[in-house]
Amino acid sequence: MGNIMIGRFVPGKSVVHQLDPRTKIIGTFVFILLMLWANTWSTYLVAAIFVWFTILLTQQPLKMYIDGLKPIFWLLAFTIVLQIFFTGGTPVLLHFGFIKVTLPGVINALFVMFRFVLIILMSTIMTLTTPPTSIANALESLLKPLKSLKVPVAEMALMLSIALRFVPLLMDETQKIMNAQKSRGMSFSTGGPVKRAKAIVPLLIPLFVGALQRALDLANAMEVRGFKDAEHRTKYRILKYKKQDYQAFASLLLFSIIFFSVLYLI
Amino acid sequence: MAINFQQVNFSYGAGTSLEQPILFDITANFPTGQVTAVVGQTGSGKSTLIQHINGLLLPTEGQVTVADHHITANTKEKELMRIREKVGMVFQFPENQLFANTVLEDVMYGPINFGYSRSDAKNAAEIALKRLNVSETLWEKSPFELSGGQMRRIAIAGALASNPDIVVLDEPAAGLDPRGQQELLNLVIELKTLNKTVILISHQMDHVAQIADQVIVMHEGKVAAQEAPEQLFNRDIQWFTDMKLDLPKAGQFAEKLRQQDWQFEQRPLTIKALTDLINSRGTTHG
């Protein structure tokens, strides 16, 4: 369970850690949009350099990022295979019966791979350097305009941060229950698919019972401390753009300009 | 069935950048038919240590021997299943592991997993429930309708149902009322008379002094001491401060008396020994 890197926060004091979470969310979002435009080698090079610099700025070991890519390896492999085998065009490089491997197919597959990897790396940078509660706060702040459309933004953000807070707790709980049932001879690795699916029941039921109990406890704890609605709560951490955020936006703008010049000029 | 730890090292995430060493060079043994208490402050590695006994965790280096089974870094799941049948493991707040529709079904879960027929499993479950004094009227009820104390007893019955030779209890008394705690200690004593190897993690030194044959003190992932409670609790008071451990209540009281210039060789560990000490002074000086 300890090796899931996506969405994991690692505390630090780097420039990237200190950025306003809204800056990081907007930055990641803009970067993902740009990547959907990228369709030449040079644009990927520019984007890769940008990601590389940002990774260096986070002062985290590169290995963390590589670990972050591992869970999506199979998804990536699957997409690449699809791209290679099912893109038409000439010249044809190889024949397997009715399936042709073409040069545009291979290039397309490489592009898709780079796009995936860069987007995942960028998102990992964001989640690695931003505590989940800050992300929820930032989303609330960014979605504020929707309030005029009667969208309960504050409630949704509160729900999100509570849900995020519960993830490690539930993982912990799962591990504990798994240990208890394994000690009573539960095994996931023997028997047919039906037997294996059945083996999960003794894990799921205690987990649900525990989660409901926790939710009740939390609701009580919030109520006794005077919680009425998320809307009118004051905030302990007030989000404020600082100098470094403007610098970050400036470099993002600079990156976008270089990106589009490379895209259209080269 | 005896258990032996031979130079066991354990790290979470061994071989990765996030490697986190927890246990260092653990050599310890748990003799058959004795109660071994494992004590130490939170985070000292007690829970990690006991999870090696039934192979929930495998040693990164070294070897754990359970009767004639050896557990090393490469032990296979099939072998571990054979060991788990012999080891009843009761975790902290074991009531959180209950899941079945009825109490009886829940207690039968272990035996069925270990290959008992349904009727054998039912017999085994009934024996375990009787041992834990769970009234027969509750057997067909849902475990979720019962009180916390009853749920705890049913969960422990579930761990004991396949009649294991080794019983590991991780703070079984936590959160129980004094009477429930005493019942648990009586259960440990009963298990000992059945020649089971009992391992008990506890923060309550009174319990340790009362029922342990030997005590293993864990400190920062190492074994700091392995000896009889009479020896352990007569160590220098500074040692207990260093280990962040308490003395049994009687011992603490006796230390207060020592400050009032009382003289005694052996620290009293039980209320009875303490009253004897006080009475003896009463007769000689009274």
What do these coordinates show?
The complex is a heterodimer of chains A (266) and B (286). The model of chain A has no long low-confidence stretch (mean pLDDT 87). Chain A is mainly alpha-helical. Chain A has helices at 15-18, 21-37, 41-58, 62-69, 73-85, 103-129, 132-142, 153-183, 193-198, 201-224, 243-265; strands at 92-96, 99-102. In chain A, 20% of the residues are buried. The longest helix of chain A is centred in the middle third of the chain and has 31 residues, at 153-183. Chain A is built from eleven helices and two strands. Chain A starts with 14 loop residues before the first helix and ends with a helix. Helices cover 68% and strands 3% of the residues of chain A. Chain A has two domains: 1-150 and 238-266, no CATH class; 153-230, no CATH class. In chain A, α8 crosses α10. The longest helix of chain B has 16 residues, at 178-193. Chain B has helices at 46-50, 77-86, 103-113, 118-131, 148-160, 178-193, 205-211, 229-232, 237-242, 249-259, 271-285, and strands at 3-12, 20-30, 35-39, 61-66, 69-71, 87-90, 166-170, 197-201, 214-219, 222-227. In chain B, the strands form two sheets. Chain B has a six-stranded mixed beta sheet. In chain B, β7, α6 (178-193) and β8 form a beta-alpha-beta unit. In chain B, 39% of the residues lie in helices and 21% in strands. Chain B is of the alpha/beta class and 286 residues long. The termini of chain B are far apart. Chain B has a domain at 247-286.
General form of chain A: flat
Using only CA atoms, what is the Rg of chain B?
Answer: 21 Å
What's the total count of β strands of chain A?
A: 2
Main sheet specs of chain A: 2 strands, antiparallel
Query: What is the H-and-E element order of chain B?
Result: EEEHEEHEHHHEHEHEEHHHH
Shape of chain B: globular
Strand order of the largest sheet of chain A: 1-2
Measured between the Cα atoms of the first and last residue of chain A, the distance is: 46 Å
Side by side, the strands of the main sheet of chain B go 6-7-8-3-9-10
Strand content of chain B: 15-25%
Q: With helices defined by DSSP (H or I, 4 residues minimum), what is the helix count of chain A?
A: 11
Q: Point out poorly predicted stretches of chain A.
A: none
Low-pLDDT parts of chain B are: none
N/C terminus separation of chain B? 51 Å
Binned, the helix content of chain A reads 55-70%
